[in-house]
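Re-running the complex after MR caught last week's input typo. The corrected sequence lines follow. Everything else is unchanged.
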Amino acid sequence: MFELLAQTGLNAVYAASYISLVAVGLVLIFGVMGVVNFAHGELFMAGSYVVVALYADRFVPFFVAVAAGLVFVGLLGLLMERALFRPLRDNPLGGLVASIGFLMILQALAVLGFGVRMEHIPPVTQEVIAFSDRVRLPVARLYVIVAAIVMLSLLWYFLKRTRFGWALRASAQDPQAAALQGISVTLTAKIAMFIGAGFAGLAGALTAPLVSVNPYMGHSIIVTAFIVIIVGGVGSLEGAVLASIVYAFVHTFVTTFYDGVLADITGLALMLIVLIVKPTGLFGSADRA
Amino acid sequence: MRNLIIWIALAAGLIVLPNVLSFSQQEVLVFLTINILLVASYRLLTLTGEWSLGHVVIMGVGAYASALLTKTTGLPVPLGILAGGMVAALIALALSYPLFRMKGFYFLIGSFAAGEIIRLLWKRFRDPFGGTKGLKGIDPMPDFSVGFYNFDFFEPTSYFYFAAIVVGVCLWILWRIEKSPVGLTFHAVHWQDKLAQASGVNLRAYRTLAFVIASGFAGISGALLAHYIGTINPNSFDVEVMVFVLTWAIVGGTSTFYGPILGCVVLTILNEVVLRELGLEQTRPLIYGLILILSILFMPNGLESIVQKFTRRKEAGLMRPEEAK
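Corrected-run output:
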């Protein structure tokens, strides 16, 4: 029994890692741009397909492919900022619809380029860290965990310790006041979109060999990310990380001990309860949307 | 008198319409008719300023309720459709207690979560909802004759006439509600909420009322759908369908009654007829996505703003404040 608990705990840590990467990106974009990016799950999917194209099809080393995934999806984020969110800055509902349009385009491109079937990606490494016979952590999962910890720490340092980070947080809090202080709202928007999208791409690229890659994989990711950012409080990065961990543990344990559908229901119910008790989320502040 | 002629022409056009279409286009026409009711009911909710992502699931509640009631209790299908609407309204009333603690973005996501929970419950409980496979062999409308026309519901044309009458009556009711004092209060709840509250309007009660009425009509549209296609499953009402409803409403524009309907008709014809006829099966979502982006970038006030441009001079004196905005 203890071993099962330990193994499930390890699985939950892995899930928390990639969920928090996705959710933090979504929060960053929402905080700075004021837009709900519905295409965030498809950015994750795009990251996975970069690994399919480079690593699985062209034998580029895995970590080079992952770095390419981060940069490529980050650039997609810049494209969205320039083409969609900047012209629609005063129209949050418009930004939402535009991101839905972008989502459909990304999905269609994935179908056209790779087909609807699940991609087969050769495993990166077969190595497994065995704590005991029944408590094992595949090294491929460890990569995801380490990457999430490193990237989130870097982001935290960037936001709290550098001038750019201060500027970013300032324009998330109050764009007009930030602009008055000489902070370029456009520049902070670009940075936020690049990081936010890039993190989603990174998560997608790293997990590509571990999940079933297909053009429609973004759907469950975006649902999870929404739950997490609501529970954590929209606009709170710390809240998003904490909520990712809570959600991952609840979801993984209910899946292991009961079943997947019940786990989904539990996750959604968790979010509804948080919304009912504290309608702005655990760490959230005033309504923005 | 002029109005009467327009209505008669419209009715004549709708009677002729299915007879000049191919079989698959007739089927699209039936779905379009049902979706018009769905999107028109959605607009009633958006009048109060709240955007829900659970509307299609509520439609599904009506579909499941009507399908199960007609099957298990032997309720006649027309009454089942009505009951489907009532069940959807009741479920909406129950959901409104938690949901209307939230506003704006939180309501959007909260309604999505509530909808997903309902959908997952259909998936999880095979009895009575049929699990992932859903319900099959739903009772069809019984055929009947009105003397000069035989309704044979195996034919899409017959079902189109039936659905068009039901939807027409529902639209008329929705229109009357919007023009009534209650409808004007819905507007006030959105645009002048502080003033409305100060005048003694119970904001939450009116938001709930709009939500319940809109859900009732969504339920009717779901029941219409269920008895037409004969099989429903949880995926028939997933968030992808909701995204379509959202885009119909936004691309059409929501400041007029006809805006969302216009969006629904134009986008459905584009997506289901034009792009399909051009043989662009695989690139269809790509083009549809591009159309969405271009229309929101270059036509932020929706298709209705174009119509208004042509009719503005005539109605200048009658415009409501939010249209003049």
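None of the earlier attempt is carried over here. Residues 321-325 of chain B have pLDDT under 50 and may be disordered. Residues 27-237 of chain B form one domain.
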